[in-house]
Amino acid sequence: AQTVTQSQPEMSVQEAETVTLSCTYDTSESDYYLFWYKQPPSRQMILVIRQEAYKQQNATENRFSVNFQKAAKSFSLKISDSQLGDAAMYFCAYRTPYYGGSQGNLIFGKGTKLSVKP
Amino acid sequence: DSGVTQTPKHLITATGQRVTLRCSPRSGDLSVYWYQQSLDQGLQFLIQYYNGEERAKGNILERFSAQQFPDLHSELNLSSLELGDSALYFCASSVGTGGIYEQFFGPGTRLTVL
Predict the structure, then answer these.
(1) Chain A interface disruption, residue of B47, B105, B109, most A CBs within 10 A
(2) Which residues of B touch A31 (CB under 8 A)?
(3) β-pairing, A102-103 with A19-21?
(4) Contact between residue A118 and residue A17 where contact means Cβ atoms under 8 Å apart
């Protein structure tokens, strides 16, 4: 079974600085998708960034980028120029393949709570 | 606003009761996923429907059931409620079931069982 592990329950960063959140996963599949979701105090789940496993190039969305290491099964999120609005829970998620009883549901890590200090 | 709506926003009930949570997907989305977020279990997948048919099951208790109606809205029924069922229940919708299709999450229903 696929698993997702976030080893940092809490992280803190100074405003305007850079922070990296870690995520590792376990799967026997070769094709899959990985995601980072942000959950602010409002509890809304917001997609931050997505990575397709068959793409070697790391995904980037403005101040957010990932370091995808497929062989190591590692998928970290880097937030540059941190802003107060980045404070939230961040969840790493793996999307199951579309076959064999799995229909693309997400498997989440336990989350990392990010605090941003002014 | 993701375009996915969930009602009610909050629900407080007693142990042993039954409740129904409702989800309306984004216009055009055929797939609906239900997730439970609790302090103990984190975020976990419960069940998925595609165009009215059940397609996948996760860690869903036998006391829980769901369905998707012809107008594509979905309902999650929770019965014989226990204290441990207190959680935030999300539904998410997507156009299809493949990984290329983004899942859009609703705002969630906060269930409190007293």
Answers:
(1) B105
(2) 99
(3) unpaired
(4) no
Look at residues B36, B31, B29 and name the one whose alpha carbon lies nearest to residue B58: B36
8 A C-beta contact, residue A21 and residue A34: no
For residue range B15-44, list pLDDT tens digits in order. 999 999 999 999 999 999 999 999 888 999
pLDDT 10s digits, B41-52: 899 999 999 999
Residues with Cβ within 8 Å of A33's Cβ and at least 6 positions away in sequence, in order, are A50, A51, A52, A53, A94, A95, B99, B100
Interface test with B, best of A102, A103, A110, A112 (most B CBs within 10 A): A103
Query: In 10 A of CB B21, how many CB atoms?
Result: 23
CA–CA distance, A112 with A110 (Å, rounded to integer): 7
Tally Cβ neighbours within 10 Å of residue B51. 13
**Six-digit token pair at B69?**
């109606």
Return the residue matching tokens 């959950």.
A39
